[in-house]
Each structure stands twice: as structure tokens, then as C-alpha cells.
Amino acid sequence: MLPNLQYAAIRYENFHSEVLLPRVFPLRAPLSVAMWQAPGSGLETEHPSLAEAKRAKYKPVKLGLRWGPVWSTAWFKLLGRVPAEMRGHTVALRFSCGTEGTLWKDGVPFQGFDPYRDLAFLTQNAKGGEKIELLVEGACNLPLGISTFWWDHPELQTRWREPQPGRLESAELVVVDEAAWRYAQAWDFLRRLMLALPEDSARATEIANGLRDIHASIDASDPVPGMEETA
């Protein structure tokens, strides 16, 4: 049987993914994705240069793709256009291959990704119609290697015992509601902190009670007013 705080954490994670995150991205546009797996396997995998990755032959892939093994490298090519409805907005890339990754932009490393960071802001005041062609170098490992921790989600722990722990989870252009994004980030940070603390910790109980009270005050059908009041 799961401890009470873990039950609470699952409930609050569902609220984060099903209620808060949809409000964070009011405009979204999927990108097409193709993948090239670097030669070798595991620690024997080659680490190609950007020039080599650009010359490689990519195969189209879809969200949900599983890839690996651990310590291997894969490159992802993202293609699309900024839709007209994003004109005038700041546009970001939301991307996750379930592992660490590096976004290359204009020939240089632009930003890192990992399972806890999946946003890269690309342009302000978009015109609409801009061509998007980006490369992400994926490394099949976590920020601290390939080990998970007891407070990580059970799905994540199970995944990293599989032959192919990588997952292509998202690849889209988004417009970000920054107030909602900050709120969702704070919510998930507190949820994770609660799990990292001992079950009998007074601070863990305090956080659990606080999240419970905030959760009860938010109208799930229209959480934005509640966010403004409780943030």
C-alpha cells in the first residue's frame, strides 16, 4: 500500500497535467519529427558532430516512440511553420525525448532539455508563417546518469529498467501563458519536494495541507482566477 503522501502526490500530479498544463499553453501547433540513431550501442555509441548529424538520413517518427539503449545518442529533426494565429506572440518549442537533450539553433547549442525542463523560447513577436527547422541531440540518460530515486514516479522508475527507456513525449510550438506557467511550475515543485521529504516530516505535512487547501479553492473548469488569487 502506498503511503498517504504518495497518494496525494499522484492526485496532485494528475491535477497538474490535466488542469494546469492545458492553461499554460493556450496555442499549440505540432511539429513533424524524424530521428537518426547514432552508430554503436550504449557506451560504445559514437558522438557525431553537428555537421555529421545534418548529413544523416532521418526516418519519420511519432510521439510515443521508445528509443535507447541507455547511454546511446539519437538526433531529432523538427520541422514545421509558425501558424498565423501565433502572430504577435512569443513562441516557444516544447520538446521532450524523455531523456537529456541539446537543442541546436543557428549552428550552436541553444538550450538543454531533460525530464524536468521541456521549454525553449524561440522568438518574440512572431510574424506567423516562419519556417521551423531544428535539431535536438538526445542522450539516453538522466541528469545524474541512469539512476532514478525513490521519490520519482513509478512509471519513470520502471521505464529506466527497460531496454529502451527514452520516450518521444512532445514536439510542438506553443504560446506560453507565463503567469499560468509559473503557477504550474511552483505547484509541481512543491509536489516533488513533498515526496522528497520523509513521510513523517512536519514540513511534508505542511506542504500536503497547503496543496490540499489550494486545490480545494480552484475551480477545475476555470482555474485561472483561482491562480491569480492564490499565487
Describe the protein in words.
The protein has 231 residues and is an alpha+beta fold. 33% of the residues lie in helices and 28% in strands. The protein is built from 6 helices and 12 strands. The strands form 3 sheets. The protein has a 6-stranded antiparallel sheet. The chain has a 4-stranded antiparallel sheet with strand order 1-12-6-9, with no helix packed on it. Helix 4 (178-196) runs antiparallel to helix 5. It is flat. The model is unreliable at 225-231 (pLDDT under 50).
Compact description:
The chain is of the alpha+beta class and 231 residues long.
Task: Please specify the SSE layout and strand pairing.
Blueprint: H1 4-24, E1 27-30, E2 32-37, H2 50-55, E3 59-61, E4 66-67, E5 73-81, E6 91-96, E7 100-105, E8 108-113, E9 119-123, E10 131-139, H3 154-159, E11 166-167, E12 170-175, H4 178-196, H5 202-217, H6 223-230
Antiparallel strand pairs: 1-12, 2-3, 2-5, 4-11, 5-10, 6-9, 6-12, 7-8, 7-10
